[in-house]
Amino acid sequence: MRAALIVLDSVGIGQAPDAKDYGDEGADTLGHLIGRDASLPRRLPTLWSLGLGNIIGINPVRAPGASYGRMTEVSTGKDSTTGHWEIAGAVITEPFGLFDRFPAELVDAIEREAGVKFIGNCAASGTAIIDQLGPEHLRSGNLILYTSADSVLQIAAHEQIVPLARLYEVCRIARRHADRYRIGRVIARPFVGSPGTFQRTAGRHDFSMDPPRTVLDCLRESGQPVTAIGKIGDLFAGRAIDQVYPTRSNAEGMHHTEQLWSQMTGGLLFVNLVDFDMLFGHRRDADGYAHALISFDGWLKDFVPMCREQDLLIITADHGNDPTYFGTDHTREQVPLIVCHKRCAENLGSRESFADVAASLCDFFNLPSSSTGASFLHS
Hints:
alpha/beta; Alkaline Phosphatase, subunit A; Alpha-Beta Plaits; eight-stranded mixed beta sheet; six-stranded mixed beta sheet; 13 helices; 14 strands
């Protein structure tokens, strides 16, 4: 028995019922992309054949090749950690800490233990703050500290000034101190280049809070291996994961997925494809976002035939990041749900929690479910 769970990072399909509470009224990642380019559904033939158009009510097909629906997040937040944890069955009711500026006692504690000094300590776009403070960092050696609308503490440093191993060491120290403030992730943000041409590198590494118990623990305890591709290992702090394959791009993630799936005889392949969010959503690059979806669709055309009738393939997302919306942050949206299993093609409706995925995985692997969700395999 083998299952693949593919999370298209930030591919939302319209505002969640509580979007107003997050300042995200009117956000619609996929809908607004189609609004800019009406030909996009035709350029996503595989996703549309599986029922994506049926979910959003645009060019639905009469006989979709998979079951389909939409999911609403219960947890408080709109970040990757919250979304992925709920997908895995852990609903977060106590929100992660959000800051415009980190408290002095937190910053001082990290500086003392790590033996560093920080500059910045503000909310900013990662590329913008590197351009702004990178020259000072090169002169002083002080590390750049910043945050965003998400619960993240980000530390940026030039690789020639602060080697990756040292940057990761500082971030591990920051992680320990950040727990007290319920900061979801500490993120290492290395970069290279000269003033005016700084570029972030693939050496990014996320240090997450330890997650609560999830379906991954259930799988491990039952002897089912869990393999993580992309930032899944980081988001779950390595907990209950047997193998981790970090990636630098969607292309690398899709390559790993195809190669590992062809070798798997059982267990869960848990995949995050981050380019939609990292490269295009946050940077408000609608054209790039659309092209990334087209590339994924082309890959999916060849991957779906690799799935046997008894396998389980789930495609979903963790939040939205509407590239046509104001600002540069995530958007509180519902997410698509596409399920390939036993040639079923049912309308799964509007699911009340992302945790339905975890409940369905337990159902598929014949495990008792501790999730608050409801399985959609027998809807």
